[in-house]
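Hi F.,

I've been meaning to write this up properly since the lab meeting, where we talked about keeping a consistent format for the predictions we share between groups. The idea is simple: the sequence comes first, exactly as it goes in, then the structure tokens exactly as they come out, then a line or two of notes. No screenshots and no reformatting. I'm using this chain as the first example so we have something concrete to point to.
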Amino acid sequence: MNAVNILIGLMPMIGWGVFPILTGKFGGKPVNQIVGATYGTFLSAIVVTLVLQTPILTGKAFLFTFLSGACWSIAQSLVFYAFAEMGVSKTMPVSTGFQLIGTSLWGVIVLGEWPSVTAKLIGFFSIVLIIIGVYLTTYSEKKVSESESNVVKGITLVLIATIGYVGYSAFPQAVTVDGFQAFLPQAFGMAVASTVFAFITKSNREAKPYRSKSTYLNIISGIFFAFAALTYLISSRKDVNGLATGFTLSQMNVLIATLGGIYILHEHKTHKEMVMVLSGLVLVVIAGVITAFI
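Output, unedited:
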């Protein structure tokens, strides 16, 4: 693996790291956040397509990349609810860990990545490190039952969301498309799914997301997500980093998102909790580095 590929693989870290911090700052309910973010991504995709004059996908290629975006939109909606339950700084490491495990297993089992026995042993060792790291980041000194209930609910939401995130990564791998070509239909899938989400429940309709300032502010967060999504589509191609390695590199965004949640969104941590969070993040990063060089 060369340095240029690794650099491409790390670019999504910036956009995906800043993304949850901005949605936290701009506020609003999950429906405001997902609608604003997906519309921002879709607008960015239109601009990229027009500037680069990228051919429009059709048929199976369009369908699979569209489904990829829809999967992400559903998953991210659940994660926004998890943010409300346990905060960005606690949700992001859990989400990252689950996604790393799910996507790596898909890449290995279905796509045949990490082909040698040694590669598999190293890869699964890194997954164990991730599990331990995620566990450390969820540590809390508070023994209040309500707080524990919120964490359990948040983790359950993230676990379900992981299925959607794996679909987001896996669907584009089923067809041979350029990352720039996949960007527009994927973003379109995100926007369509979020629009359905905005009207599907009574509470979402009553929130009137299209009349809320936070929805339109979250378009900005969507632009940051768009940068990450586009560079990830390029990185995860087999001739660049592949799915297992490309996704693992991208998920180093957990550093920016978790620390941003603590220092920018002011999610309080005791000294012991902070030590546990940092220790967990170190393990997740070590696992990511190991995976990148398999």
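Notes:
The chain has one domain: 3-292.
Residues 3-292 form one domain.

If this format works for you, I'll send the rest the same way.

G.
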